[in-house]
Amino acid sequence: MKSRFLKLKSGARIQVIEAGKGKDLLFLHSAGGHLPNDPLIAALATRYRVLAPLLPGYGESSGEDELRDMLDVTLHTLDVLEALKLKKPIVVGHSMGGMIAAEMAAIAHTEIEKLCLLAPAGLWLDEQPIVDIFTKLPYELPALLFHDAELGRRLMTAGGGDMGDPEFLKQFLVMNARRLGMAGKLLFPIPDRGLSQRLRRITARTLIVWGREDALIPPAYGEAFKKAISKARLVRVAKAGHAVGQEKPEAVLKALQDFF
Amino acid sequence: MKFTWFHLMPWPHMPDDFRQKHRSVWVDLPSSMYEPELGHIAYHQYLDQLEYAEKVGFDGIGVNEHHANAYGLMPSPNIMAATLTRRTSKAALVVLGNSIALYNPPLRVAEEFAMLDVLSGGRLIAGFPVGTSMDTNYAYGTIPALTREKYAEAHDLIRKAWAADQPFAFNGRYTKLRYVNCWPKPVQRPAPPIFIPGGGSVETYDFCLDNTYSYSYLSYSGYLRAKLLMEGYWKRVAERKVDESPYRAGFAQVICVADSDAEAERLYWPHVNYFYNRCLHVYPGFADAPGYRTIKTIQTGALSQFAPGSGRDYPSMTWKDLTEGRYIVAGSPETVRQQMEELIKTLRVGNVFCLLHMGNMPDDKVRHSTKLFAEKVIPHLRNLWPDWNNHDDRFWCHPMHEPVPLRVAAE
Q: Which ipTM score applies to this complex?
């Protein structure tokens, strides 16, 4: 994996992680950003040329102050796609990234022909409320995001660091505030910015993947997305939580290869 | 010195096992705990206490805004202040304040504050807090990272609405109004004095200095721990080369006065304990929504009193811990006088927001403590800023000289 930077006309400076060879695949991360040595990006890179830009507020990407709402973020990400000069890539988005990918495919439906949504956010069902991730404490996240909480804990803390060290804690709080502060513009207090009325505009062939044990966005949302997108297929992955791609990277890779 | 008797108006009937049964006093505690008939009694007792504070000589009486909680039962402090305009006549009405980012449109604050200023004959002191994260983000749904931008725009609108003599158009990002036309206007021109509750955001220092607003640090951890933060403020004042009027700053302090130190513990400990262990029992996940505080503020390391990592262990703290650590100022009038003098001088504050009602304190104790503070403590503290003539016109209200006398209905 290597890291490079894009400078957009908007002034945003975007860090892009690039790995692998093959057909172009744009990967849009979740509210948590990339994991250290992200297992999903690593798996996808065995078959695709993966380009994984970080949203402003994440990693070394900047420019988040000018992104305030869904349209800002959707257009920003389309700008990134254009600046990367990709030819009809598979657009893969996880959770918040799936919400952005779906918006892009709805707005620019002539440009996005292959779409993969991994447990996307963006809808709200009153009878299946989504857990309020903004109130969760860091130690609660592995069990919320992974079916195998112990695996989740190992993956999420692989970067190392000691919460007892004030300097590390401060850096962690800054990173957390930047990332979730940005994510909150799309997801707080309810992760619904009207996507349901735009999903019908998506013309891309769409693969939807859901972990059967998703404790954050219940699998019922997979059905709702499938129903609303015309050319969609839903694949459920056993023994996987919300971080389906990081928990079962091979299963997600196989579903992608089977579908596209 | 100016002393404001401040009421939080907590719910006084939280059960003894509240901490065990509920994770938070704010945001998600069940409202089935609230009993309106008991609430009726509490509200009137609390309003009586504020009126009593004026009677015994406090300069101001104060209320504030909170939502979805048992810590403070004033979703609308303006309603409380409105009742106080009728049965008080001298005290400043310190509404600290209205969370201006939460009103839609924020013009509502300009209108209601103007109403209060007119009703009270120019006795309003207006507070513009950002609001806690529990209130602003979790209870009222404001997007954390946009809260401050929304706040700044609301402030701009309110000040323009008060200043303008003709209708004007306001094209904000969050509020668009073709006709801004504030009726009524405040008695105090161009605006009532404005206090800004701050919790260590460095940006707030400059905001206060730019606008000649008084910086009010509302903390429950006492003046020893506030020293660093207030030094930061005064350092900024010096850097900006503005005058160092102590009335540029205020501090909230829990105070308990009795005839002796031992008597203070006997009388007030159960209620202080109720306050620190029930009223302040906030779930850490509600204390600080990511994006609510600016990156710059986090980098300075000034954590909110409610934030995870603020490192306070109230459940294990005793009366001795709280008094010796100066979380609370409590004891005989002489003990309280000494400590208040130290507080006022070390923090350099012209305003003190006195918290003399605590948690579930019964009315007779509230009045006892209030009366002792007014009669035996305040007189010795009045003259601590002689160089400033103990008053700064920029940071206190300007009542009308001849307010209309009130008449009773059944004359």
A: 0.95
